[in-house]
Amino acid sequence: VIFSDSNEASIKVAEEIAALIRKKQAADKQCVLGLATGSSPLRVYEELVRMHKEEGLSFSNVVTFNLDEYLPMEKENRQSYWYFMHENLFDHIDIPKENINIPDGTVEGDAVIDYCLSYEEEIKKHGGLDFQLLGIGRTGHVGFNEPGSHYNSGTRVITLDYITRVDAGPAFFGIDNVPRKAITMGIATVRNAKRIVLLAWGQNKAEIIQETIEGEISSAVPATYLQEHKNCTFVLDTGAGNLL
Ligand code: GLP
């Protein structure tokens, strides 16, 4: 779906998420959301916070699983995805703290292998993701599933692509400060979500969006795997949809 502006598009996506939360609430069920960081979902989070404050939208039945986190990364670090999520969403809504799941960037050594398996297990224990929000990186990554990521991959440690580290450089005051690794949900973790919405704004995403939607399905552009999902919508603005 191509919107004339990202603001209007973000409000529509926030409305869909709010409707799902309310539907689950009415059925006395938890709503399991997969969440993303980056600039793309910011306006969606802002709108959800507004709905909480002005319309009484409650997140008391919401459980969240974030896609990824840098490794190593301390929670309190301003560049952490933990910090990002609290600053832009969690600190402003009534979600119970124990319902928030973000990959832990402080796990050391081989313990990270078991940690990733337990993250995956926890998602399964909750019955899987009801809704997964995604952005897209210029390498075609979703979460941090860089080119080469396997269709059946689960939550694991990944080595970041050079382009991804270049793009993250300004936030870290230089590429040398960008971690080389990250923990990310896998392609299979994302594919198993019942509903997926991928957001992309602006002309600099136009090329990767064209490859993702019109290109051949391939691990070279991991986001192309989404073509096979039965309930996935790409929500774009005219810039990002420019080459379609
Ligand atoms: C990072 C995140 C991705 C995100 C991407 C794009 O690499 N790990 O999940 O989609 O950035 O970010 P932006 O939305 O700022 O373009």
UniProtKB/TrEMBL annotation:
Residues 5-231 form the Glucosamine/galactosamine-6-phosphate isomerase domain. Coiled coil: none annotated. This is Glucosamine-6-phosphate deaminase. It comes from Pricia antarctica.
